[in-house]
Amino acid sequence: MKKIKKGDLILLAGFLLLAVVGFYLARHSLSGSGDQVVIKQDGKIIATYSLNQEREIPLKTEWGQNTVVIRDGRVFMAAADCRDQYCVKHRPIMTNNDMIICLPHKLVVEIVKTQMDEEVDSIAN
Amino acid sequence: MQTRQKFSRMALFVSLAMIFSYIEFLIPIPLPFPGIKLGLANLVIIIPLYLWGFTAAMGVSLLRIVLVAITFGNMATLLYSLAGGVLSLSVMALVRKIRFFSPVGVSVAGGVFHNLGQLLVAMLVVESIKLIYYFPVLLAAGGITGFFIGVLAVQVLERLRTESGNGKTNSN
Questions:
Q1: What is the CA A42 to chain-centroid distance, rounded?
Q2: Superfamily of structural domain A36-124
């Protein structure tokens, strides 16, 4: 009856091509270095730290507990009591725009570049 | 008789979809990315779509989602399942109208839009557009898993058709 049609393969190839382009764009925008760690919960910034200062940040909120660790210019989630543990398994982040998300706790930990750095960059460019 | 058979089969599909969801719940794919799974349940959504159309398939899909959430699932994930399920099935119903595609293409589109629906909910939950960085992974995963589910769906549909073509009742 209904065998695989050419359209199916074109559609799959199109999506995969789009994914490859997306990978490339994502990698490109994640390649810069940042200097600040921003922690957001429920869409609001709850804390900001320097990426260069070693620190262990225990967070206890109405959604649950997370422990963010900043060490050697990298950030990782050392512990969390969320149900899926994706944030704990996430590789340490170190580049600008990269982030760790704890979806059950509505938590986003991201690395950003501060305004001052951007100015220095644009002068350097 | 026809209607009764249709409803009993729809119920069968709902229970099959639940079992498939449960299997996937028991055996998560060991990838460091959230939300990637084979989408076995989608197999039992595509088949009603081809047999009886959009409304019946949506009925099966919504029943499965709600039943899974209240039995072994999680109320917190209900919104994700709903967004993924409704968006995916709506897109599949549209793609099905295009003669250019077989159930395989329909399933590919379904897999991709299921993941897109869930990503959109996640964006709303953490209020961050930056989650778009996950889209390439979800796009590739949705397309590939959708392809395999589509190939399976074609096989099943072919057998169901031969069965009804031969006039076998096969009702146990």
A1: 15
A2: N-utilization substance G protein NusG, insert domain (2.60.320.10)
